[in-house]
Amino acid sequence: MYKKNTDGLKPKEKKSIERLAERKVDGLISRELAKELVTVSRAVSRKIALLIDREGEILEVVVGSRSIIYLPDLGRYRLGTGRLRRVRLVFPEIVEREPAIPHDIYTDLLKLRLDAVIGVSVVGNRVPFCLAHVDPTDPSKAITISGKDVKELPKDFEATLELIESSLATKKNSDPGLRALLVGVGSTKERLEELSELAKTAELTVVGSILQKRAPDPKTLLGKGKLEEVILTALSKDVELLIFDTELKPSQWRIITNSTDLKVIDRSMLILDIFAKRASSAEGRLQVELAQLKYNLPKLVEKDAGLSRLTGGIGGRGPGETKLEIGRRRIRDKIVELERKIHKISEQRDVRAKRRTDSGVPLVSLVGYTNVGKSTLFNALTKGTVLVENKLFATLEPTKKRVVMPFDHRSELTEVVFSDTVGFIRELPEELFNAFRATIEEVHSSKLILHVVDASNKSWEEQYLAVRKVLEEIGAKDIPEIIVINKCDLNRDFEGSGIRVSALKREGIVELLREVTDRLFPE
């Protein structure tokens, strides 16, 4: 087939272009076909390129302008084993001179992972060529070979392709986990560091990051040139996944996914994926599925290749993964059903909370930014065995434990219920916040909040304010609060007021329990 860009051409000229598509190719390009390609291009004064597969079949004839070739969408030619496209591009030099490969063709070679690009010309009786292919030792670069006649083109190029693909496959398998590149637009270095921690929590291998400080483009997020740089960097590092720190609008997401074969997700989709993987209770799974469906609903368009790439993998796994491509109406029905189930569970939780309130046993909730050590502190306060991991969102399900306080101002025993809550994070996806809102709002029942901050984190103040913002949103800002400065053993010079502890080393726990008792049971 050929791409029609033949306006203004005579019928005879169009016919000569059509005949090119009927040729069978021997080797990389035969001398006869190369001469014909150059002759036809010069006759119509337009660059005509051939896309040829490894079997020698001309897949497409592309008619460009006199100076530029506009390649078609190559999405149908999926990347094969070793991540080459299994097609090569042959293009002519319209002027009678030695062929050269322009920058944009080099970019296409690396960006699209073509087998090769070959420029051909006719100079006198010669048919010189210029061949370029991906450098197997450094995929961000190309190797170029020039010759005086296409008869000198490599006869064993299949061996070169095998070497390239073997090298790329070896490099791909050398790192555990899906390889990801982080992209920040109008972001900060600290936010990209947090995004990196989120990616590691999702068991991804982060191989690099790109930070663009300009304000996001409302239409494309990234400028065309910057997006091209991102894709080239991803290909050079053998990346399979792009993670954007900025939440992508559906239109931005489609533009980016249509520009590359890579999977594309944003920060919210990554957090949803982490929650999907770590949710263990029936309610938690329902909440995650609801959040996934609500977040992905605007992206659900018929035959959207970008979304289909997400299903069953990062950004689309968990309870909702099989729901991502069903019809909008069915999704809305499912959302209503999930909201009904979660509301019922929430009502049951309210009943349990009322019983606890009626019993007179006060609730003390541990809140704080994710990974500040709440679960470790909970275990230290209650002698509990809650799972502790150095990962974001290690705790998704609230855990409660009744404790007899050691500092009672009265003769009878004094009991307190400590609650380990879900870790907070700035800009939590609205859909996820709403889904987990009932769980988070358990803090309402608290008589006291232990607000845990990480003394070893230089962004602790920003994290503290992010948590206070959430507490305000759920109407819990007026509940009495004790600031607990955790991990003080890692920063003895921490400047800030509060009870200093090291939950891991059990330092300051007695002092914290005494302060809790004094707050709840004053003389």
Topology record:
Layout: E1 2-3, H1 11-20, H2 31-44, E2 48-53, E3 58-63, E4 87-92, H3 103-112, E5 116-120, E6 129-134, E7 142-147, H4 157-173, E8 179-185, H5 189-201, E9 205-212, H6 224-236, E10 241-244, H7 250-257, E11 263-266, H8 267-278, H9 282-296, H10 305-308, H11 328-358, E12 363-368, H12 374-382, E13 399-404, E14 415-420, H13 430-435, H14 437-440, E15 448-454, H15 460-473, E16 481-486, E17 499-500, H16 509-520
Parallel strand pairs: 1-3, 4-5, 8-9, 8-10, 10-11, 12-14, 12-15, 15-16, 16-17
Antiparallel strand pairs: 2-3, 2-4, 5-6, 6-7, 13-14
Helix pairs in contact: 1-2, 5-8, 8-9, 9-11
What does this structure look like?
This protein starts with a strand and ends with a helix. About 1% of the residues have low confidence. Helix content is 37%, strand content 18%. The chain folds into three domains: 171 residues, no CATH class; 145 residues, GTPase HflX, N-terminal domain (Rossmann fold, 3-Layer(aba) Sandwich), CATH 3.40.50.11060; 161 residues, 3-Layer(aba) Sandwich (Rossmann fold), CATH 3.40.50.300. The protein is built from 16 helices and 17 strands. A seven-stranded mixed beta sheet has the order 1-3-2-4-5-6-7, sandwiched between helices. A six-stranded mixed beta sheet has the order 13-14-12-15-16-17, with helices on both faces. It has a four-stranded parallel beta sheet with strand order 9-8-10-11, with helices on both faces. The radius of gyration is 31 Å and the shape is elongated. The chain has 523 residues and is an alpha/beta fold.
